Amino acid sequence: MFLAALALSLSLQDQAQPDAQETAIEDALVGAEEDLPPPPPTDAASLIAQIDGAWAAYGNLAGELGARRARERFLAEQLLPVIARNDLDEGAHGAILRETADTIREVEGANTAWAVAQLDPEFFPILYAEQTRMGQQILNWAERDETAEGTIVAALEGVAMMGLIDGPEYARRADNWRVMTGQPQLFGTAETCLNGRVNPGSIEEQVTLDERREALGLPLMVEAWTEDRLARTCDEENGEAEDG
Questions:
Q1: Which of 39, 62, 83, 125 has the fewest Cβ atoms within 10 angstroms?
Q2: DSSP state of 233
Q3: How far apart (Å, rounded) are the C-alpha atoms in residues 244 and 233?
Q4: Residue 54: which residues within 8 A CB-CB, separation 6 or more?
Q5: Which SS3 state, helix, strand or coil, does residue 194 take?
Q6: Residue 194 in contact with residue 163, Cβ under 8 Å?
Q7: What are phi and psi of 243, to 5 degrees?
Q8: Helices 149-161 and 132-142, interaxial angle, to 10°?
C-alpha cells in the first residue's frame, strides 16, 4: 500500500512539473515583453508631434552647433589645400601657418568653450539620449579643453548610468580624475600607492560603493580587489605598481 501511494505521488509530481515549467516560461515571456520599449508610432499625428517636439527642444541648439561646425570646416577647406601645395615660394608654408594660427585658435577656442558650457549634468544626459550625434560632437569639442575634465566627468555620469556609454570605462575615468585632484574615489577602480602597496585609497560613501559599482557593470569590490592585487608593491613616489 505504501509503495502504491508513493508511486501515485511521484506520478502526480511528474505531471505537475511540466505545468509549473510552462507557467514559469510564460511569466518570463510576459516580463520580457513588459521590459521592451514600445514600438515606434506609425500614425501621422504622433510622428508630427514627435518632430515638432524635437524641433522645439533642440532646433536652436542644432542651428548653433551646425554654424560652429561650418566655421571650422570652412577654415580647414581654405587652409589645407594651400598648405598641401608643393609649388609655393620658399618659406611660404611657415608664413601662412603663422599668420592663420590666431584665426584657427580663435575659432576652435570659441567652439570648445561653447561646448564645455553645454555640459550641464542635468541637461546633457537627456541631450545625449535623445540626440546622440549632437551630444557626441559637443563632447568631442569639450575634450579639447584639458582643464574641463571635471565638468566632463560630471556631465557623463547620468549618461553612464543610463547605459549609453561603457560603464566600467566611465568609472575608471571618473576615479582617475578624482585621484589626480586629491578626492576620494567613487567606484574604487584606480590604483593608488600607500606604504609601498597597491590599494584603492580613500572611497567616498563606502556603504553604497558596491551599489554604484553594480550600476556600472563592475564586480563587487571584494572580487576586484583580491588579496593578490593588494599584495602588489608599488613605487610610492610616483604611485606606479611594480612587477613581481
A1: 39
A2: B
A3: 8
A4: 130, 131
A5: strand
A6: no
A7: -75, 155
A8: 160
Concatenated DSSP letters for 105-122?
Answer: HHHHHHHHHHHHHT--TT
pLDDT tens-digit profile of 53-93? 999 999 999 999 999 999 999 999 999 999 999 999 999 99
Buried residues in 190-226 as b, exposed as e (16+ CB within 10 A): bbbbeeeebbbbebeeeeebbebbeebebeebeeebe
**179-211 pLDDT, tens digit each:** 999 999 999 999 988 888 898 889 999 999 999
Q: How far apart are CA 59 and CA 47, in angstroms?
A: 17
- Closest among 110, 108, 117, 175 to 151, alpha carbons compared: 117
| pLDDT for residue 32 | 55
Average pLDDT, the chain: 87
Grid cell digits, residue 26: 510564460
How far, in Å, CA of 177 to CA of 171, rounded? 10
Among 174, 191, 186, 204, residue whose Cα is nearest residue 230: 191
Do 174 and 168 touch, CB atoms closer than 8 A?
no
Residue 117 pLDDT > 50: yes
Pairing relationship of beta strands 197-199 and 192-194 according to DSSP bridges: antiparallel
